[in-house]
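Dear colleague,

As promised, here are the two records you asked about, laid out in our usual form so they can be pasted straight into your sheet.

NAME FIELD: protein one
SEQUENCE, THEN STRUCTURE:
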Amino acid sequence: MPDIVSVRDLDKTYAGGFRALKSVSLGIRQGEILALLGPNGAGKTTLISTICGITTPTSGSVEVAGHDVVRDYRAARQLIGLVPQEINLEPFEKVINTVRFSRGLFGRRRDDAHVESVLRQLSLWDKRDSKTVELSGGMKRRVLIAKALAHEPRVLFLDEPTAGVDVDFRRDMWETVRRLQADGVTIILTTHYIEEAEAIADRIGVIARGEILLVEEKDSLMRRLGRKEMRLDLHEPIAAVPDSLSGYKLQRSDEGGALIYTYDTSAERTGIARLFSDLTAAGLRLRDVQTSQSSLEEIFVDLVRDGQ
């Protein structure tokens, strides 16, 4: 798919001299879900704010569907919906009026059918006449999403949309994101919940210290950087790994009752068959074998640590 958002050599340096973005280049494909991961202060929110035209870049360019976000701000911004981290709603306004007003801000004609559809999709229709001050935190976040969708954007930014909400809401949010993608909306998600990225993203981007470390297909990333561990439970504990097995770099469990073998799942040969043969030759009998795959969280932590 073609890129709907194109970021080229983007820099942002604030007045105090802090360089929040460093030559960031990024293409976001039409219709994809891109999860942008990074520690606090990595530059995630600055990048989103710059793409949305809220923050002016120091240098570089951003285009949304061919519209430059600085030179052609109105056309670019009309294509974007933004759900910010902070809940900032008029407390005494009705939910339905809040969403209608947001649509009007983007110059879109009144469309009560579309507003109703958005509110129903987010389970807000029954709350349409409630004042936002009367809503729970999770419901207020739903209103933020409804506001962002009111003008029918083609690109939706979700900046920590499930922060501080319960598990049920998070899973409802995932379903909403999938439905939006099915309708052709491109979604960029920043999150501290890495299982969220693992569950719904097509591609993963990692940013740290204002630089993009990588952008890659999620499945490809997990195959390329993922590790698989095999736990070999022994019939009898051992005090040390036999010298004949030193080439496998086995780790002994604390009590010596098991050995841990780490291998690359993408390698042509894993060495497992030879390991079993050598274990037998060393006089070690196996009681059980268990395998586990490294998670996206472990891959992310390793990437950020290696980039320091």
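NAME FIELD: protein two
SEQUENCE, THEN STRUCTURE:
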Amino acid sequence: MENKFFLTNAVEKIKRGESSFFLDPKEFLYVSSLLRKQKVPYQVFKPYPMAEKVLIYRDSLPDMELLEITSKEPLFHRFILGTFFAHQILPYFYSDIMIRDSAYVVALKPISKYMQDQILTIGKIPVCWHTKDLSVIENFEPKYETIFLHVPSLRFDAILAKLLKVSRKQVLEKIESHEVFLNYEECMKRETLLKVGDVFSIRGYGKYIFRDIVYQNKKGNMDLEIHQYR
């Protein structure tokens, strides 16, 4: 884990009665395990029950806002995430991106103000920002598009090539360009074998979850069920 110093610093902040930033599942496990070892009491804030990114805090939550993003055209998770990346907004400062009829994100201040003032388009789509009460998303459930893939193996590069409809050489180029992430960490090994439950993302394409092996024949070819965040 490349950000151990950052996470250790988060532990020290929590011990002082402050809070962490938003943590992905791996970061949460690392921080919470250190807190338990040091017998530091803590609480967990989840924007909604199935949220992947959470905050750990000791006494009180930091200042944050639920922001609704509206537009005249549909907004997709990958385009919003790409826009945040283009504005160099670190993922620690905001929650999971939630898509309903509108899009929602919980952002820490002053990042929430920056988003509202500076992000006027998602891709080429003009957007408006609205501050909402957190109760709006308390029962939110993520939406996915289900994709079925027929692949010769569970090698990550083979699955990505089939999923993105590109060559394995192009997949390697994306890996070498630091555009591929597996279970919230940069993936540098194309021969990695995926496991059911793995979460992966490709910059510009979105975020996916490997849900199941639907069928496998005697030759080892498989039909996989993959969910893409909408």
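A couple of things worth noting about protein two: Residues 25-37 form the longest helix (13 residues). The mean pLDDT is 92.

Best,
R.
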